[in-house]
Design brief:
GO molecular function: aspartate 1-decarboxylase activity
Distance between the termini: 31 Å
CATH architecture: Beta Barrel
Shape: globular
Strand order of the largest sheet: 2-6-3-5-4-7-1-8-9-10
Oligomer: single chain
Pathway: Cofactor biosynthesis; (R)-pantothenate biosynthesis; beta-alanine from L-aspartate: step 1/1
Enzyme class: lyase
Largest sheet: 10 strands, mixed
Strand content: over 45%
Organism: Planktothricoides raciborskii GIHE-MW2
Number of helices: 2
Subcellular location: Cytoplasm
Helix content: under 10%
């Protein structure tokens, strides 16, 4: 069984609200945002700075719910400035054969300029005769949190 890493959650173009060099590390993100896409506290994430091209890896701490906070902490704060647009992605290790058989779902928030959910997407790999089809569908509303939202439910043919 070969293992592969697939994105399971993404916060697209959130804005850095603070860069705190003195904090010991991590990124602090509005708890509502991480819950909607299923990122757990202490989970490793990749951060790509759209403004300057810098890339980094760190772990997540939950911030004040509804605050819109995205605070880059520690040494990584040298790579991002308040106002920078960043993409934050989390990956999970999956068994390739299981993905080909059962598919995979990732949750994506496209943020507005205040780090609110402007658009919510399910990006899915749908099993298709030994391979997978990629589908991306906008959801009318984002799930309240990762526990209550539909994971790995196939999209309808209309999507």
């Amino acid at each position: 069984m070969s293992k592969i890493k697939l994105m399971h959650a993404k916060l697209h173009r959130v804005r850095v609200t603070e860069a705190n060099i003195e904090y010991m590390g991590s990124v602090t993100i509005d708890r509502e945002l991480i819950e909607k896409v299923g990122i757990l506290p202490l989970e490793e994430v990749c951060i790509w700075n759209v403004n300057n091209g810098q890339r980094l890896s760190t772990y997540v701490l939950p911030g004040e719910p509804g605050s819109g906070m995205v605070c880059i902490n520690g040494a990584a704060a040298h790579l991002c400035n308040p106002g920078d647009a960043v993409i934050i992605a989390a990956y999970q290790e999956c068994d390739r054969d299981e993905v080909l058989l059962h598919g995979h779902t990732a949750r994506v928030i496209i943020a507005d300029e205040h780090n609110r959910c402007q658009e919510f997407l399910y990006q899915q790999l749908i099993p298709a005769e030994g391979y997978v089809e990629f589908r991306s569908a906008q959801s009318a509303i984002a799930p309240t949190n990762w526990v209550n939202g539909p994971l790995n439910q196939p999209l309808s043919a209309d999507n």
